[in-house]
Amino acid sequence: MDTSSSIASVDSADEFSFNQILAERMLGGVPMFLVEWDNYDLNEATWEPARHLHRDTIDDWEEFKTNTGRRSQPGFKLRNRQSHLILGQLGSNGQSTSLTLHDLPGDTTASWLKHLKSQNRIIFTHTCTFQDWSAWPDLVEKRLCEGTVSAFVDVAKLKSVADWLEIGCSCLMHHNPQYSIILFPLTDEGRWVSGDGETHILKHTIVKPSGVFDASALAPLSLPPTPDELEISATSGIPIFDTVFGFGLDEVLSWKSRESGQTSVFIAFPASARQEANFIVEWLRYRKPNCHVRFSLHPGEWLSFLKLEHGAAKLQQGTVIIHEDAIWAIRSFPHLAQLLHRPSDEISFHIFKRALPKLLPPFSPIPFSPIPSEPVLNWRPSGEALQQVFRLGDAFLLTPSFFVSQPEQACSLMEWLWDNKKRFSSNYFRKRLVVCAKICNWLHKLASEKKERLQNSTESERWSSGLTQRAIDSYFKICGLARLFVGLAEDPDSPVVLAPESIGGDDEQSLVNWFGWWAISKMDLVRRFYVVGSEQRLTRNVRLLSVSDYVYSKAPDAKPTMKWYGAQVQRGQGLHHLDFVGWKSVFQGHKIADL
Q1: What's the CATH fold of domain 7-68?
Q2: pLDDT digits (tens, 9 = 90+) for 76-87
Q3: DSSP code string of 358-415
Q4: One biological process GO term for this chain (predicted)?
Q5: Conformation bin of residue 365: beta by default, left when phi > 0, alpha when psi is -120 to 50
Q6: How does residue 181 score in pLDDT terms, banded at 50, 70 and 90?
Q7: Does domain 247-389 have CATH number 3.40.1010?
Q8: How far is CA 164 from CA 101, 152, 157, 309, in A?
Q9: pLDDT at 495
Q10: Span 332-348, mean pLDDT?
Q11: 20 to 30 A from 256, CA-CA: which of 131, 507, 514, 586?
């Protein structure tokens, strides 16, 4: 292919010597050609439209494509890469600078990349030496991408950071369980200015950390202060508070608290975290001298915080701060459901977490382990000590007894949930349907049983059991809706949550127990949780099931049937209650008419 022609650039005052066309792609519906210029590096190749190239050059390129079937030169791979501008906080002193991360993967479906692009700020909390990082390859499970980091506005600030890293032979690190970002300095010879005026000063490596990675072994980042930062005025705040929390108190308080000026905070900390609780109290009182602070170490403080009157919480606005070691105990807080059903701009919740925690739950009596591929907690990775939870969103567990006894109401609720899915694209405004793993098969079998029973029953039997053709139609319509939901189960922001396959569709007690665990583990995504059951003691709640797969340790003369009575299960001569009472204090069960 002849590449010896010379052309003028768009700016006629400049002349460039054309070398070759490297690749072709469609940009905005227009064919564009990646052109390499003589005496310029490949990273300075430019995309040019056909009108900027000689006709002979285009003809030669078309002949090359026809003969080879390629749209790029042999040995040249056109990477589908993108850049992302983000605010980076460097060090515990809270300095921030705008960064542009280059050469990110073009595959925007990667969960880690979607999370990274959703962040307004990335905090680099730790540092290590080049030697230490390269000596432990086992810390990295997978390298996700590499590229450069540039700055356009804060060039001087980023250059000082790069110089500081180069002197210490060190790198910066932002760490979370999904991915870690490591920043290395470029040498003076390696730094360059791109055509858009951005100065490339650092290089980044983004990796997926392995299970043995423990960021607490790294040194916390502490940049040397600038001369302007050495003078601290009386109103600038206590440095240790700013170091730990990284933001003002107003970002923690609910919107109504900020508007009214009345600050009421409850601190739910275990006795082992008394010093941390005292530290937060000092911070609150320093920032808001008139702040009313109550915490769990003093009996009766919770009810006082609620301003309980005749069993109802009269608290108008407030903030609850929960220690990470206490998150599995919050379901026992009296009247917590009343606070969760209030708007998040009135009552806000935050988790106090240690720096870079190991996200493992404490021992729980729930006999089901978390799904291995699913993170236990969806923490927003950052260096902040306080993270907001219970923001927005609702989750509805539809129990087997609800499907069995109230098919028309169940159909209406699922239609409403599906309509919500279509109307709201935001993950936080969506309602989530929670059902058993094999819900489609379970519902189809139930619908077939009801249809057969309708055909073989007398008029009086149909009336007593509530069987109508309308109910049968609702059963099969529910099956269709369930297939629509399950078809989206693998989506990152799926509107349906499936229980573990180890829980059968008829095991209502285990479903409710598991839902309690799931609700706590997803507190950063959902605010309100509902267990939707049937009305009490309806005859149509009864469904006969084979129990050949069940083994009982007592009642050897048990009959091979199981009966569902709303929130009760009859096994032989023994009656076992499905105890919703323990969860009603936090997760209010509602009838369909109440929704």
Answers
A1: OB fold (Dihydrolipoamide Acetyltransferase, E2P) (2.40.50)
A2: 766 666 788 888
A3: ---PPP-S-S-PPPTTS-S-----SS-SEEEES-S-EEEEE-HHHHHH-HHHHHHHHH
A4: chromatin remodeling
A5: alpha
A6: very high
A7: yes
A8: 20, 19, 11, 59
A9: 84
A10: 82
A11: 586
